[in-house]
């Protein structure tokens, strides 16, 4: 009998992307996985046809209210809900249900960080869903609860980890991540209008104010044991999807572009969703759109005394929904890459 | 043993999209279909890694020169070549090879049309690859040669056919198709630069000068037997992919929005890649990006005495590569929808 | 002593564009014109610095509440308010004040049209601010009240008038206007988010439902005396500013591209803000951005039996604020072109 | 009698922007300044109407060949030519002609830098056209030769100078500049096509390879006397115009956001084209489009131990043509701000 999967917050961008991936998942195509309840709040009662016309296969499905009752009885539940709300719902789901939370509620280990950046009570922490981090794949495999990472932390962590773990640079990072607008979600706001975002660039939540800052720091500290300092500056750019991250850090002596490149290649040997590009290439966001890939390049800037790492991800796929499906595959013991595109919709 | 497929002109946008689709095709994933020679001209000798970094699964593959020798020995050959060149290559391929030409060489039946619009000698015509046109699916199934349709003709034909075939409007069409820039291909030209195309709109090849005009007329005449007149105006808009087509035509008496909508729904009943949207919805190109879908809406404008039909396709998928793969599936006797996404990468 | 000008609804896109133009107006630069009250509703109390950082010259100015009292005592008042609200405010302003209403309240002559399209009571009609229409310049010069035209009607009227007035085509027009997103204003709405509008195209308010339809019809009837039928289809495209209008209409016998082009050139001889482009050129919206220009081309499509006219305007300049300033100049007896750019910010 | 001005390289983006500004310059409008020869190479012989339809006021002007003869006899000559070519032409112009070179030939003081980054012989150096740098206004006023700065160096220098000059941060800068595509000029290249640049982000000329790197270092060394290190990473983003620069540098002890902000405000007190935004605001490129402004913000990131400075300019205006006109005004003893917009075409 088929496993059933529910998506809470199905009508937002993360929820929609989870559904897009599930519809192409071999387990769905073969009948092993059935798409169950799709829930939302203000959109409850409407049909997918009017809310997500990009998913005609589900056109006739009605959106239910996000309640524990409607989510009950599924083998897998994806939560794509505002922070605070995930924790509340998750608490009421059976222990044996595989719950993948795309929100922030269970990402941070440190309560102080949580309170400083999110304000409300800390719900705790779950195994963190970047399987490419040391030791995480095993944790995810054993767990029925996964905290899916934030989009910026995914691109930044995958780019920075080898640089620190392999001793290529000092743990004092300047990170600038240029992002498409879908990262801000599907909520009406004047500063996210097409008129305000097309043809314009702006930094926001600068100087440590962005909530993904402590998550990046936590990942790098856990992944390397070092006392890492991070300056994080997100920049909003006129494209729907994609994050290009640039990281500079003081170069360690004796590191060359070639040795750094080799260290990165070795670090990610065997990883299917991280591509350390051939020397000379640079990650470009259009080459990861719709995929679960992270493209990475590393270089040495001798004159400036800096290591430069760049990475590109699709914020909605590897940055959210793709990571969630990857973790689901791991937790269910399926092929990790099942249903996760690596070939991007470009141009 | 696996069937092998070659792609000539693999490094252009159409060729790249064919490869993206093949990499997700169940026959490729199961080993029934193998990707053989990838050929090009000026790019021959380079690797996919540098030419198409959106396809990391093929990164190490080298691009060969486009020659009959390099294409020989494959069961399926996709041609994504400039017009004139397809015909020359096709002539030298074995009869039993399934050849799908994404170029224009074999689309037009009438030599006069060909000479007027393309200038050189007419190569003849092959079964035309819009399976949703009356009688075409059967022709394609029996043929080893398929002329894959142009992008504009696909969106226009699917939108106009039911209007004419069901007698909803006079065969005197005003068609305006707004298109993304990838339709112009991957060739350097000042007027296609980002600076010239972002933030701007312009009509081009107006007043019957666009080469897709006779192809649209031919499809509608063949599909309805009527003496059709078409005014076709393409408009270039700042997006990579997508064609939104609007068609107005003099309304036949007694036709209402409701009766027109029902006629369209009936006409496309059973078609998996045409979605006549629920009344009130309008096709939006982002909802078909990366898919083989055509979304359609039809309405009556009483005051103006016009029928209005709108359609959205992805010019590179249903408009080119998706149609090619769909035709391949039909010609090989496979599931017609295999490997063809219906869920769009939106937003 | 300087004349003073107030702008009601100053923080919206139309209001901001009026201010941009006034700041570059020779009368402002020479001290003959002073910028007085800037008013709004929800934004009242805030400074220009935070609301319109594109206008640093006014950074320290505070926004007042939109009330007749705050607008009183100015020589010129621009109203950039929601429909219904303009009329209410206008009624309370002194007769001798020059009032330019950028809203719809006083555009339509026919009460039936008004009620059908806007729903509430008809406020009446004022001289209509397209000075290039026959006889309008004189009316505007004598009036202290001007109804500034809608953006779509401006592009469509200027393109269609000569075609009908010179007998080049039948008065049965199919108009498709592709528009940037700023036309929808600066109000939060999910379907106007960057994520929903970038990378996508969609028609909206189709089949006669758009409120600018009766305004276009009215202009063409008044300007030609003919019984005009108009099918109007607006299409939303991913750019901030610009409207590209395409018009097809049944061709009158004996009309050639050359004779049509000459008729258009003659019709607009002496007009500074209409450029009938040299034969072979096509209007492109980036070439009018920030200007008060309308670029036009006309062609004959023999095979289709259609006349094709295309035009480009900036919806916020010639389409709204530029027209308003042009009308102010006329009504004040100033040089009509004062402060109105013709050189576009391109690319 | 009017001064005459010639523009060499008039049909490129920099040349076109110079013309746009001149057409709105009060000296042009009053007849004091006449636009003389417009020259180019491959476009010579064509009319402005077909090459730059955004400048209808010059539509009938023909483009001449770029030769010393055609440029001779003008009081002011703007050079917007490829590097190497400027020097060759400049050498042949009379000493008393005011020559403003928008190319790189005379920007760098150090021959070694020149050879390393540009490869050919060093032509020497001219007074450098950022009037806001200490002592430069006076040099420009006395000179008949001005090296107009590069676009990236303008945004980076204006942002970094106060941080270093006021001792707010260590002279060890990580600069990431996100730029629109017009900075790459109007030359056909596949990687600058709309298809390749819309919807995508990529870093390029990374790790010290960009030619603007030594220019930034030179400016900061000259402006502060410090031994400055600069890591510079340009990122290409999907918009026509605009550069958003983010700079991080190790924070000096005792510096707060408030004290840094005050230092910046003091540093630029009296400068008309630099706007240190009110605390809390962030520069946004759309708010400088078409203007000669640089918007700046500065903040302290305590946790990261970094100073963060952000700036926005229009690469074609303050970044090139606006700076050129500003320098012309200074060198001619005119009002420095004449003809230079501060109100941006936004949205």
Automatic annotation (TrEMBL), chains A, B, C, D:
InterPro entries: AGPR, AGPR_AS, AGPR_dimerisation_dom, AGPR_type-1, NAD(P)-bd_dom_sf, Semialdehyde_DH_NAD-bd. Pfam families: Semialdhyde_dh (PF01118), Semialdhyde_dhC_1 (PF22698). Pathway: Amino-acid biosynthesis; L-arginine biosynthesis; N(2)-acetyl-L-ornithine from L-glutamate: step 3/4. Keywords: Amino-acid biosynthesis, Arginine biosynthesis, Cytoplasm, NADP, Oxidoreductase. Its EC number is 1.2.1.38. The active site is at residue 151. GO terms for biological process: L-arginine biosynthetic process. Transmembrane segments: none annotated. This is N-acetyl-gamma-glutamyl-phosphate reductase. GO terms for cellular component: cytoplasm. Belongs to the NAGSA dehydrogenase family. Type 1 subfamily. Its main location: cytoplasm. The gene is argC. One of its GO terms (molecular function) is N-acetyl-gamma-glutamyl-phosphate reductase activity. Catalyzes the NADPH-dependent reduction of N-acetyl-5-glutamyl phosphate to yield N-acetyl-L-glutamate 5-semialdehyde. It catalyses: N-acetyl-L-glutamate 5-semialdehyde + phosphate + NADP(+) = N-acetyl-L-glutamyl 5-phosphate + NADPH + H(+).
């Amino acid at each position: 009998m088929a496993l059933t999967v529910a998506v809470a917050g199905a009508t937002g961008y993360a929820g929609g992307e989870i559904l897009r991936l599930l519809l192409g998942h071999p387990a769905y195509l073969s009948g092993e996985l059935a798409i169950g309840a799709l829930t939302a709040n203000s959109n409850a009662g409407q049909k997918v046809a009017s809310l997500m016309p990009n998913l005609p296969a589900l056109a006739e499905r009605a959106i239910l209210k996000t309640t524990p009752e409607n989510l009950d009885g599924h083998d897998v539940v994806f939560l794509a809900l505002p922070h605070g709300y995930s924790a509340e719902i998750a608490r009421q789901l059976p222990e044996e249900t595989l719950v993948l939370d795309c929100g922030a509620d269970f990402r941070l280990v440190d309560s102080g960080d949580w309170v400083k950046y999110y304000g409300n009570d800390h719900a705790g922490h779950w195994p963190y869903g970047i399987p490419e981090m040391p030791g995480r794949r095993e944790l995810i495999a054993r767990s029925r609860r996964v905290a899916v990472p934030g989009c910026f932390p995914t691109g930044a962590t995958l780019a920075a980890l080898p640089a620190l773990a392999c001793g290529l640079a000092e743990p004092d990072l300047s990170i600038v991540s240029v992002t498409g607008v879908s990262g801000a979600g599907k909520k009406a706001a004047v500063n996210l209008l097409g008129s305000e975002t097309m043809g314009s660039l702006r930094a926001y939540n600068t100087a440590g104010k962005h909530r993904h800052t402590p998550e990046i720091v936590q990942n790098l500290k856990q992944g390397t044991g070092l006392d890492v300092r991070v300056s994080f500056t997100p920049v909003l750019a006129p494209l729907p999807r994609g994050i290009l991250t640039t990281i500079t850090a003081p170069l360690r002596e004796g590191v060359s572009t070639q040795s750094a490149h080799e260290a990165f290649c070795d670090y990610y040997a065997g990883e299917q969703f991280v591509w350390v590009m051939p020397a000379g290439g640079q990650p470009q966001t259009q080459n990861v759109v719709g995929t679960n890939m992270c493209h990475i390049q590393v270089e040495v800037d001798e004159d400036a005394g800096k290591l430069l790492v760049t990475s590109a991800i699709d914020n909605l796929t590897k940055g959210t929904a793709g990571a969630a499906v990857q973790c689901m595959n791991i937790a269910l013991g399926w092929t990790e890459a099942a249903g996760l595109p690596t070939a991007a919709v470009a141009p």
